[in-house]
Write a structure and sequence with these properties.
It is a single chain. The protein is about 40% helix and about 15% strand. The chain is of the alpha/beta class. Helix 5 packs parallel to helix 6.
């Protein structure tokens, strides 16, 4: 059986996707960013039985020759590799373009050479602060960070490969995803770990009045899986979001209730982005995903969200991860 190639396999979404693919009986070649520590990132957290089933290859999506060799003889590509931290993109924009945009171009070129279907991973950040809610896929694109710009450019080049070379591609556009194994930089893990950390009395956050549409990782990954053997989605861009938005402030309160540790929440001026950089609201329309992928999140509405947050809290508790509180000076 030809293998499915997954980039960004050692990351948050990638590790869940690879795990699910293996559990469902697919054969996977997983790209891990080469590093001198010989570390496989979050793949190392998978059960040994699953890990042994994966063909792990190391490399960098910026290396076009290597991507060509890895992609040859694969059956399809899930392209998730990216630099994803928004704050760091303000200070290192070039690396974001090189990885997220030019790295994607390398994947597309190899896919074109061997005519392989690509599921390209976008992000809701490409919409910026919306002019209409819920956000449909044809909403204007308005990048407010170099991260969002690099992903917008990647989406556009992916779509250009569909339009000009007939390459079978689909753009999957997840809204904020959360769950076990997510980096502590992301907002839900930072709230959970600051809440659980007995050595700190306050929770420091940025703008707590912004809203996001948070999708539990199992649901997001389920959406990715529904792209396999689905020909209705070629050339399409599809949002994966729940259609419900929550204020960061309310999530912090909810986590206080779930953990029974209610700390004062304060705004840390270092975490506040200026008005032009801050995406105020994100809330997805998921009608297209329902129609083309037959996808509906299981963790839906307030009760679904509470359940998913509880599962996430339990995971961080069990793994005893400490908040880092590392900020970049921009
Ligand atoms: N997590 C979310 O809420 C979310 C929301 C929307 C979109 N996305 C998108 O989903 C994808 C995965 O995000 P994630 O949350 O799992 O992030 P992550 O940082 O956990 O995973 C990204 C992976 O890409 C790898 N990578 C970075 N540069 C690379 C390079 N040059 N070559 C090869 N690999 C490289 C990293 O090592 C990392 O493991 C990204 O494309 C991101 O833009 C994520």
């Amino acid at each position: 059986m030809k293998k499915i190639f997954v980039t960004g396999s050692e990351g948050f979404l990638g590790s869940h996707l690879v795990e699910k693919l293996i559990r469902k009986g697919y054969s996977v070649k997983a790209l891990v960013l080469y590093n001198s520590f010989n570390k496989w990132g979050l793949l190392e957290r998978l059960p040994k039985k699953i890990l042994n089933e994966i063909e792990i290859v190391t490399g960098d999506i910026r290396d076009n020759d290597l991507m060509d060799r890895y992609i040859k003889n694969t059956s399809m590509i899930f392209h998730l590799a990216a630099l994803i931290g928004i704050p760091y993109s303000f200070i290192a924009p070039k690396s974001y373009l090189e990885t997220n945009t030019y790295g994607t171009l390398n994947i597309l070129n190899a896919a074109k050479k061997y005519n392989i279907k690509v599921i390209h991973t976008s992000t809701s950040e490409v919409y910026g602060s919306p002019i209409k809610i819920p956000i449909k896929e044809d909403h204007r694109l308005f990048p407010q960070s170099p991260y969002a710009a690099s992903k917008t450019a990647a989406d556009q080049i992916a779509m250009a490969f569909y339009n000009s070379f007939n390459l079978p591609i689909t753009i999957i556009r997840p809204f904020n995803t959360f769950g076990p194994r997510q980096s502590l930089r992301a907002v839900i893990p930072t709230i959970i770990t600051q809440t659980l950390d007995k050595s700190i009395g306050l929770i420091k956050l940025g703008n707590v009045n912004t809203t996001r549409d948070f999708c539990f990782v199992d649901d997001t990954i389920n959406g990715f899986l529904k792209t396999i053997n689905n020909n209705k989605i070629i050339g399409e861009t599809i949002n994966l979001g729940t259609g419900k938005e929550f204020k960061i402030k309310n999530i912090a309160k909810l986590i206080g209730k779930i953990t029974k540790i209610e700390k004062k929440i304060i705004t840390d001026s270092k975490r506040i982005r200026n008005k032009n950089r801050e995406v105020i609201r994100l809330c997805s329309s998921n009608k297209k995903a329902q129609k083309l992928l037959n996808w509906k999140p299981k963790y839906l509405g307030l009760s679904g969200f509470k359940h998913a947050v509880k599962l996430t809290v339990d995971w961080y508790k069990a793994n005893n991860l400490k908040s880092k509180n590392k900020l970049y000076n921009i």
